[in-house]
Amino acid sequence: MNPLLTKEESELSALQSIIRMGTRQTLEEKIGKTIYAFALYEKVKRATIPIYDNSDYILMVSFDKEAEHESIILNKILPLLARVYFTL
Q1: Is 25 helix (H, G, I), strand (E, B) or coil?
Q2: Rounded to the nearest 10 degrees, how much is the dihedral formed by the CA atoms of 35, 64, 19, 11?
Q3: Which whole-number Å values give the CA distances from 78 to 16, 44, 84, 87, in the listed order?
Q4: Would you call 49 exposed, middle or buried from its count of C-beta atoms within 10 A (0-12, 13-18, 19+)?
Q5: Contact present, 40 and 47 (Cβ < 8 Å)
Q6: CA quadruple 44, 47, 48, 49: dihedral positive or negative?
Q7: What span, in angstroms and rounded, lies between the C-alpha atoms of 57 and 55?
Q8: How many CA atoms within 13 Å lie on the side-chain side of 5?
Q9: Quick one: the chain helix, strand, coil %, rounded to 5?
Q10: Distance CA 14, CA 20 (A)
Q11: How is the beta sheet containing 58-63 ordered, strand by strand?
C-alpha cells in the first residue's frame, strides 16, 4: 500500500485532528465524550479515536473504502485500547 500523503501532510493532518478533537471536547458536558470521529473521503476512510488517559493523545486510523470501519473500531480497536490502558 502506498501512502496517500507525504510525511509533512500527515503531520499537518494529525495537528488538524488534534485541534478538531479539542473543539469537540467543549460540548462533552452536554452530549458526552467522543467515542470516535469519522470522515469519508473519495479515496479513503479515516477515523480519529481519543485516548482518555488524562492526556491529549489520539489514535488516527485509515481504512480502505470497502472496510467495515465501524465494526473494526467498535469490536477490535476500542476493546484493545481498553485492555491496554486498564493494564498500565
Answers
A1: helix
A2: 140
A3: 22, 20, 10, 14
A4: buried
A5: no
A6: negative
A7: 6
A8: 12
A9: 50, 20, 35
A10: 10
A11: 37-40, 45-50, 58-63
C-alpha cell belonging to residue 58: 489520539
Q: Which of 46, 45, 48, 26 is nearest to 37 (CA)?
A: 48
Q: Measure the CA–CA gap between 2 and 30, rounded to whole angstroms.
A: 41
pLDDT digit string, tens, across residues 35-72: 999 999 999 999 999 987 666 789 999 999 999 999 99
Stated pTM of the model: 0.83
pLDDT tens digits along 3-28: 899 999 999 999 999 999 889 888 99
